[in-house]
Amino acid sequence: MLKLGHxxxxxxxxxxxxxxxxxxxxxxxxxxxxxxxxxxxxIDLHCHSNVSDGMLTPTxxxxxxxxRGLRVLALTDHDDVGGLSEARSAASEHGITLINGVEISVTxxxxxxxxxxxxxxxxxxxxxxxLEGIRQGRLVRAEGMAASLEKVGIKGSxxxxxxxxxxxxxxRTHFARFLMEKGLASDxxxxxxxxxxxxxxxxxxxxxxxxxxxxxWIRGSGGVAVIAHPGRYDLGRSTMMLLLNEFxxxxxxxxxxxxxxxxxxxxxxxxxxxRQYSLHASxxxxxxxxxxxxxxxxxxxxxxxxxxxxxxxxxEVEAL
Length: 320
Ligand code: AMP
Ligand code: MN
Ligand code: MN
Ligand code: MN
Known about the structure:
Elements: E1 2-6, E2 9-11, H1 16-24, E3 29-33, E4 43-44, H2 58-67, E5 72-75, H3 84-94, E6 97-108, E7 111-118, H4 125-151, H5 157-162, H6 172-181, H7 188-196, H8 211-220, E8 224-227, H9 237-249, E9 254-259, H10 264-276, E10 280-284, H11 315-318
Parallel strand pairs: 4-5, 5-6, 8-9, 9-10
Antiparallel strand pairs: 1-2, 1-3, 6-7, 7-8
Bound molecules: adenosine monophosphate and manganese (II) ion (3 copies).
């Protein structure tokens, strides 16, 4: 039995939608067990700095994690590991254990998937070169996106997006910020829906890394490959099974169960899948900074106790 607390008051409520709505509107909500222990997880293995499409510098992000009470943090910028050394220095100042991470963009059977690498070696050259290739591809895609936005009368979007993307990769989020600045949409959700998803003027088809390469780079560097937010891909049962089997055959060993992108029923669904497929379970907010993410750090519940966590054999986490 769970209960929700808000500003010192207990709200006996099991309604998931209410829980997410409260978070959405910026209310501080904590999950507690009925005996009063705080159940919010102290480990967050998925978040973004401004090296990719987050709002905060790596230092600010780590400071925020510390202020939310986290003990272990993986920085997992999209296709870029450029923030890790700064994050590591900040983490040592704040008593946080930093895990080297990355979130790799993948094209699998014509769909875009994200694969998180944890405990990677950012200097492993096939990984570093592979990520460099993806970043080059992002520039080509950005030019294509700008050209197609120009066709509907929106000029200067490449330069506009680049003004927000000064530290690393260029992404759709940077285009979104430019489009919002122009007053073309009032929030992120709307700007994606109107301009940046398949079939809309700013969408430009792109081929990312293969699943095989992404898993091989991560594993080759000593890391663990994890399927990011599987509930977001809308794959259907048989395609999901195909992905899970293929991913495992390639040497992937983890799956996100508790993520800011999943609903409560999906926590259960993917906990079950992690057990069935013997994949280790991961958890992370996918925090992108103030204004860019509905899910703050330090809010999500812990993994179900019958999942094997992805950190089960990590000495730096066991030591805590
Ligand atoms: P990209 O990798 O350049 O295609 O950008 C993908 C990023 O855009 C994701 O990591 C999210 O941060 C963000 N994103 C994707 N879809 C949406 C959406 N519907 N609303 C807000 N942000 C989104
Ligand atoms: Mn993102
Ligand atoms: Mn993602
Ligand atoms: Mn992410």
